Amino acid sequence: MHLFSLTTHKNRILYFVIVVFAFVVMAASCGGGGGGGGGGSTADTTPPSILFSSPDPSGTLSFKADPAVLPQSISVSYSDASGITSTSFSSAFTFRGQSLDITRVFSAGASSASTGSNTSPLYWTVLARYDMTTDTLLGTVPVFGVSSGSAGRFNLAEIDDTGNLLYVAATSRNKLLYINLATGATLKEVSLPGKPTIIRACPSQGKIYVAFENSATIYVYSSAGAALGTIAMPATPWNMVINRTTATAYVIFSNSTAMSVINCATDIAVSTALGNIPQVIATDGLSTGRVYYAGGLGAARGIYFISGGVETQLTSLAANPEDLAYDASSHRLFAADFDADSVAVYNAGTGSLINNTGLGPISQAPFTMRASPQSTGLSKMYVLNKDSDTVSVLNTANASVSGTINLAAEPVGLAVDGVGKSLYVLLNLWDLQASEQLKLQSTIRDTLGNANTASVTLSIQPDVTGGGAPPARIISEKSR
């Protein structure tokens, strides 16, 4: 009996141990499985919160198209329980059919991102890039800062195809932008001492020349962005052209018979007196070094060419053109008549009129021109039309219009890339004739990859006195 009781007691103890062990195992199993299941069911799949604090979506969202009136800063706040990946922050806006990434003007932190600049972070524009062979749109290049027109024949965009660079003068920010031709990325921003009116590149010397509003000084910068010095001029430059073959720049001035000739290798300028006041100037771009200008008053008004220091009148004119361009492939001169909506074509050797080409039934207002470089094998002259927001394409061989490029906004500059066979048209998106909607949005991710986007829509109103207004135009020698 004692033995049975002892045995039974031992069995009970063993049974208790087994039960307890099983319970512990089950508890551990349930706890681990439950923990894993709980982890799966409570994993963070909630996107972070993000909202605009400036401009305030609940405030006034109507602005004029003027950098002094548009929001001077943009701020976005965000948060998430698992933490924020601030490097994922991005921001963009869509305006007049153009989408522009403005992420780079933001400083993004753990809980907010904000901008800071000397002009509104919204005040961007684009360069529309076209294939010169087909004249079809290839894409756009974003530019921070608007380049409105100037008296310098829209010399605000320039190509250095040797250095693979596209230069743009952002007049709203007083910046010279260096853009990679291959990628469209802005490589450098050079601060300028005033409002630029003319930029001209001399690729063989790795230089870019910049003239300014109300300044008789030309600044010289390298293709790497370094300031190389200044060149004193007798007055404020009115227009400048560069013969890239001879590395020589020619500068004319308002109401002056003076012309300054700059040796681009030495940056030494020599002034000479012309027989008449030049209105516009062109060069043949060849080793012959011919220079052409249109100007003069009354019976002396005409087109002149200078070769070997000798000035000769090619032909007389009834009115001075808005621009004068030389085409090397046809050895012809093209003169843009703003008021007559036409381009007159002359033999550059004899001055004989080949054709007076009308640009269309509506007002075109041709303002500036660029010829396809001879290296492209193309025979085209591109004519920027301000009134119709178009570019007329002229066949230089037969002096007739071969096509029209319709633009998304007011054109304020032309540049041609002979190596890439591309035409760049600088647009001013902020020149408005009616109210336009601008959608601004920003995106952020948390540390687990969940993303969220905030957006706000602004109403942009025309402003004829602000930064979006068309530039003043010089029509005749009387206004000069």
% residues in beta strands: over 45%
Q: What is the strand tally?
A: 37
CATH class of the largest domain: Mainly Beta
The radius of gyration is 33 Å
Q: Kindly state the percentage of residues in helix.
A: under 10%
Q: Which CATH architecture of the largest domain would you pick? A: 7 Propeller
Structure description:
The chain has 480 residues and is mainly beta. It has one helix at residues 2-42; strands at residues 49-54, 62-64, 75-79, 84-95, 98-101, 106-108, 112-115, 124-131, 136-144, 157-160, 165-170, 175-180, 186-191, 196-202, 207-212, 217-222, 227-232, 237-243, 248-253, 258-263, 268-273, 278-283, 291-295, 302-307, 310-316, 323-327, 332-337, 342-347, 353-358, 366-371, 380-385, 390-395, 400-406, 410-417, 422-428, 436-446, 451-461. The strands form 9 sheets. Strands 2-37-36-4-5 form a 5-stranded mixed sheet, with no helix packed on it. It has a 4-stranded antiparallel sheet with strand order 1-3-7-6, with no helix packed on it. Strand 26 (323-327) and strand 27 (332-337) form a beta hairpin.
Quick gist of this model?
By secondary structure, the protein is mainly beta. The protein contains one helix and 37 strands.
Notable features of this structure?
480 residues, mainly beta, Immunoglobulin-like, Methylamine Dehydrogenase, Chain H, 2 domains, four-stranded antiparallel beta sheet, disordered N terminus, disordered C terminus
